[in-house]
Amino acid sequence: MSATATTPLHEQYSLRAPREYGNYIDGEWVKSSSGQTFENRNPANSDDLIGTFQESNSDDTAQAVDAAQRAFEGWRLTPAPKRGELIYRAAEILKRDKEKIAREMTREMGKVLDETKGDVQEAIDLAYLMAGEGRRLHGVTTPSELPNKFNMCVRMPLGVAGLITPWNFPIAIPAWKSMPALVAGNTIVIKPASLTPLSVVMLAEALAEAGLPKGVFNVVTGGGREVGEPLIKNPHTKVISFTGSTEVGRDISIACAPTFKRLHLEMGGKNVIMVMDDADVDLAVDGALWGAFGTAGQRCTAASRLVVHKKVYQQFVDKLVGRTKKLKVGFGLDRVDMGPNISAGQVETVKKYVKIGRDEGATCVAGGNELRDDAYAKGHFHEPTVFADVKPDMRIAQEEIFGPVTAVIPCEDLEDAIRIGNGVRYGLSSSIYTRDVNKAFVAMRDMYTGIFYVNAPTIGAETHLPFGGTKETGNGHREAGVAGIDVFTEWKSCYIDYSGSLQRAQIDTEEI
Ligand code: UN1
Fold first, then answer.
1. From ligand 1's centre to the CA of 59, what distance in Å?
2. For residue 413, how many other CB atoms are within 10 A of its CB?
3. CA nearest 424: which of 447, 444, 457, 443?
């Protein structure tokens, strides 16, 4: 096919033709009772309509929760290995369709194809891990203090899980939340980010093809107020898992407090790469570029602070600036290094922070501008941007920007780097570049973050380890890994007395 400027993008790149997508409730694709839909457009090219999605309301949400509630009993009693087998099948389907799904995701979310392939791979990895959990879901057996008595702890599912997911990892994060919830026997209502609903539709399609019973996984698209809030407040949702901003997370926390609803929050980050004077500076620059500008900086793990030892500071800044200026920005299905920002609003936020950085007296040494000409005119593009001479208390070094902006901060030594590194309200990810094993271990011990790397950037978590952070990044829970199952289960301690007589714990033990 010879592509011309007038050939619609979905034909040029063999993507899905635009159409109306329904909610997925009780195993059916259905329209919202609102009769309204919203458009989903490519952030790199607003001419490219991906599809229209249901502008759902509280009635649709209630219907989905009812369906999930009805399906719960059957799913809870389905043997866990069987649940795991269905998840395994979904993993195989996602693997088969990885490239196709990734292409749609790049078109929907903007990040480059390698990265959306990675995003799908995270979903696949976690699905395989949780499929295996179907034959583990280990509890604990432990001796009793009394004779002829057996003690154990088993996991119970909670019921309907309400999942509210972000646009930056549009299939990985929904999978991180869904797969552990499902294998443990919960049913799901998910509200995807309105900027990336197709990715969750594709996840639902994979689960449906795998043979998940109807009502076990439901998707309702629409706004936070119209869908998210009723989902959180519905008495039948027994657990809420949310990834997004700290501000919204706080509101959700308050909404869940009156009924003590189980809540998992995964929120902001202001992650740091510390570069010591003995580091391999080129390696650190590689890591900084990937950490800061991967996903156009739109990761909660993004390396938005680079704390660099004064002895290598200038060398590091020069190399970083040279490399940053060479990054190619564009549509993620073309040969580029970095895609667009997700929306016009996000570009405005980036521009606001670039201005704040300049006003605060930091030096903008690379980028600093929105891209608007020619190929960029119909998208939401901003140059990858580096600020140097940043002081730790400046707003660009304290607040999450969620865009392609990073701040280089000089430091005196390891102790100073750790103090600066920990000196923010978030605690997701941190990293150190050093060749000195002693320094690496001190940093590993003293950085108060949920994730820590040595000689690697702040991004790149693997799905079988717990993911999450301290302070205002989270509320003490973790997702992914086996820790993810803790969010979606409750412990039940069971005591089985086969002595045939009354044995009083703590009392009859004296006679033994
Ligand atoms: C996120 O930014 O919300 O470690 C998730 C990483 C990815 C996940 C990021 N595996 O950067």
1. 33
2. 14
3. 447
* Pair type for strands 272-275 and 429-433: parallel
Task: Give, for all 512 residues of the chain, the pLDDT tens digit.
Answer: 345 568 999 999 999 999 999 999 999 999 999 999 999 999 999 999 999 999 999 999 999 999 999 999 999 999 999 999 999 999 999 999 999 999 999 999 999 999 999 999 999 999 999 999 999 999 999 999 999 999 999 999 999 999 999 999 999 999 999 999 999 999 999 999 999 999 999 999 999 999 999 999 999 999 999 999 999 999 999 999 999 999 999 999 999 999 999 999 999 999 999 999 999 999 999 999 999 999 999 999 999 999 999 999 999 999 999 999 999 999 999 999 999 999 999 999 999 999 999 999 999 999 999 999 998 999 999 999 999 999 999 999 999 999 999 999 999 999 999 999 999 999 999 999 999 999 999 999 999 999 999 999 999 999 999 999 999 999 999 999 989 999 999 999 999 999 999 999 999 999 88
- Nearest CA, atom 11, ligand 1: 459
Calculated CA dihedral for residues 307, 395, 166, 181, nearest 10 degrees: 60
In the reported structure, the alpha carbon of residue 198 is separated from the centroid of ligand 1 by a whole-number distance in angstroms of 19
**153 carries an active-site annotation:** no
Reported pTM = 0.97
C-alpha 474/C-alpha 106 separation (Å) is: 28
Choosing among 1.10.3720.10, 3.10.450.50, 2.60.120.10, 3.40.309.10, the CATH entry for 272-454 is: 3.40.309.10
